[in-house]
Each structure stands twice: as structure tokens, then as C-alpha cells.
UniProtKB/TrEMBL annotation:
This is Ly6/PLAUR domain-containing protein 3-like. SUPFAM superfamilies: Snake toxin-like. Keywords: Secreted. InterPro entries: CNF-like_PLA2_Inhibitor (IPR050918), Snake_toxin-like_sf (IPR045860). It is found in: Secreted. Coiled coil: none annotated. One of its GO terms (cellular component) is extracellular region. It comes from the Eukaryota. It comes from Gymnodraco acuticeps (Antarctic dragonfish).
């Protein structure tokens, strides 16, 4: 399934970025454009562009099994590992993420297929919360 979601509003400068992360089941591409004058954001942001594989790979999960290898793209230089509990069900989540999403999180590692160990992090909630709130994962 592909969901195309547009957001508009007021934002801090650090939110004006292009990002992509790939958690196997969920791939998110974010493209943003920001401006600083009154009501200047009438146009939609450009469609995000899928970047090329960068030669790195990380484990990703299919159901409870986290043994498949995922090709990272663009600036997804780190591997990510976390577990979430949804409705009492434990769901492991692994994949490729950019450096910016790893700051302050022990759930990231650098190096091919380095994310074999499981790890729990609130960081994932930051990533998933917008998706959850939109009902995209239900
Ligand atoms: C994001 O990428 C688009 C092209 O897809 C570009 O037009 C835009 O300026 C970029 N935004 C930022 C914040 O770099």
C-alpha cells in the first residue's frame, strides 16, 4: 500500500528536511519545503524521490522473523533495531535509517547487518506516532 500524505502548518527549521527510512514493512519518504513569509505555503511540497541503493544493508523483519536483508538507500547509513508492543503483541522492527534519526538512540548501529540484536527504544514511537495517529498501521 502507498499512502501519500500532505501536511501544512508552522514548523521549526529543523523540520525542513528530506528524509527516508525503511523499516521493511514500512518505508517512509519525507519531502518538505519551507518558507518564511505570511501564507507562503500554498503549494504542496515536491514528491519525494526514491534514492539509489547505497551499498549498505540491514536486517529487517517479516512477522517475528528478522533474518531478511534489506538494501539501504540514499543517506540511510545506520541500521535500526527496536521492539514495539501493539495491543499486547510484541513486534520486532528493524531496518535502515538516516543518522539524524539515531541521535541519542542506542537502538542504532553502523555497519552491514549490525542490527541482529533486539533493542527497545522510545525512538521508534517518534517515528511511528504520526503513522499510528493517521491510522496507517491499523
Ligand atoms: C527536498 O527535495 C526536493 C526535490 O525532491 C527539493 O525540491 C527540496 O528543496 C528539498 N527540500 C529540502 C528541505 O532540502
Amino acid at each position: 500500500n502507498v499512502y501519500d500524505v500532505n501536511f501544512k502548518g508552522c514548523a521549526l527549521p529543523e523540520r525542513c528536511v528530506n528524509r527516508s527510512l525503511n523499516l521493511g514493512l514500512i518505508q517512509t519518504l519525507i519531502s518538505s519545503s519551507c518558507c518564511t513569509t505570511k501564507l507562503c505555503n500554498s503549494a504542496n511540497a515536491p514528491e519525494p524521490v526514491q534514492s539509489q541503493p547505497n551499498g549498505k544493508s540491514c536486517f529487517s523483519c517479516v512477522g517475528q522473523s528478522c533474518t531478511s536483508s534489506l538494501a539501504c538507500t540514499g543517506n540511510q547509513d545506520f541500521c535500526y533495531s527496536a521492539s514495539v508492543t501493539v495491543d499486547g503483541q510484541y513486534i520486532p522492527v528493524r531496518g535502515c535509517v538516516p543518522k539524524e534519526m539515531c541521535q541519542g538512540h542506542s537502538s542504532c548501529c553502523e555497519g552491514d547487518l549490525c542490527n541482529s540484536a533486539s533493542s527497545t527504544s522510545a525512538g521508534l514511537l517518534l517515528i511511528m506516532a504520526p503513522l499510528l495517529s493517521l491510522g496507517l498501521l491499523s
